[in-house]
Amino acid sequence: MSAKTHLIHNYSSVKLSTDQVELYATLTGGHIAPVNFNLDGHQVSPYAINPWVDEEIGDDMPDLLKVLRGDFFCLPFGVSDCSPHPHGATANLDWSLVSSENQKLTFEIIPNDIGGRVIKEISLVDGQYAIYQKHSISGIEGFFNYGHHPILEFPEQGGPFAIRTSPFIFGQVYPNSLEDPAMGGYSSLKAGATFTALDQVPLAAGATTSLLEYPARDGFEDLVLFAAKQGDLAWTVVTFDGYAWISLKNPKQFPSSLFWISNGGRHYAPWNGRHRRRLGIEDVCSYFHEGVESSRTNQLPNGIPTVAEFSKANPTVLNQIQMIHPLDSDFGVVESIEQDDTGNGVWLFNSDDNKVFAPVDWKFVGV
After folding, report:
1. Residue 228 CB coordination number (10 Å)
2. Which of 89, 265, 325, 364 could join 221 in a cystine, given CB atoms 3.0 to 4.6 angstroms apart?
3. Rounded CA gap, 289 and 80, in Å?
4. pLDDT tens, position by position, for the chain (367 residues)?
């Protein structure tokens, strides 16, 4: 169909909006950003836009890096021999707009790496600060990894800001070399270290550090994985000044999450030390970012899945929610989240067990 597109940070994008949310989705790679949330007369825009967006980037750079912003869907996830695109064609190539109506955008792509077809649906609901995403995958056969890849940018002023997660059963720092100092890349966490609490993560130099506050560890890039406790709803929440950013997922579909902690540790192009105060909070079924080949070897303990089986006979549907919710200045940190039994929202709790109700259809994720 024909629909109005907008040139947003040099990429053709389609707009979707309500009184609460205004978002833009790029045709290239299907990246969602900027996203502007309207809070009592002022806007907040937590999703990151890459700092080289207005610069000429070499043709040898993948489209993913050229457009890099906000959230995007990756299939397969990571760098894979079976795909010429990091994080798959879904995060790099052009999507076709199928429809734009009833507060929903629908796109499709025929991936040139794994084949098949992927339908992307992005929806908003009046009165909510939630972004609903549905990806329907058909026409592929076999085991693949996948994930959502939201990147948040933390304000230069204020902080550090609090991060909390639902209970997890396993946590590990990426076990191989994430960055090479000889190439201008630096990491701070101890490679391969396991942890049971996000405030006790081993450093390469000894002692431990906390991942419950950010920004932190200026000048470093790190990657950690933690696998959610199986059950109902799994979540991650970041408490900013005046609001909380939240991701909601079904741990059966997205067993793990990655924290890509990007705080100026890459000094090679196009990063050049400028990608700072960013945090990727990536809900995945994957073995870190290594790609489908590594993920198929099932390297995580306790039977934690790192791939899912896809069938041409039965399309796979993956749903996920990202949202914010305003907070009073005296609320403090969101320490935990519980779903309301009605299915109409979630409760945000602080350390004093005070709670705030955030409207959202959490049953959308299939729990």
Report:
1. 25
2. 265
3. 9
4. 457 899 999 999 999 999 999 999 999 999 999 999 999 889 999 999 999 999 998 889 999 999 999 999 999 999 988 889 999 999 999 999 999 999 999 999 999 999 999 999 999 999 999 999 999 999 999 999 999 999 999 999 989 999 999 999 999 999 999 999 999 999 999 999 999 999 999 999 999 999 999 999 999 999 999 999 988 899 999 999 999 999 999 999 999 999 999 999 999 999 999 999 999 999 999 999 999 999 999 999 999 999 999 999 999 999 999 999 999 999 999 999 999 999 999 999 999 999 999 999 999 999 8
With 0.90 as the threshold, say if the pTM is over it: yes
- Within 10 angstroms of residue 119's Cβ, the number of other Cβ atoms is 17
Q: Phi, psi (5° rounding) for residue 252? A: -75, -30
Q: What is the CA radius of gyration of the chain?
A: 19
Rounded to whole angstroms, what are the CA distances from 190 to 177, 214, 227, 298? 10, 18, 18, 22
Beta pairing, strands 168-173 & 220-228: antiparallel
The residue extents of the domains of the chain are 6-159+167-328
What is the fold, at CATH topology level, of the domain defined by 6-159+167-328?
Beta-galactosidase; Chain A, domain 5 (2.70.98)
How many degrees, rounded to 5, is the angle at CA 78 between CA 77 and CA 82?
85
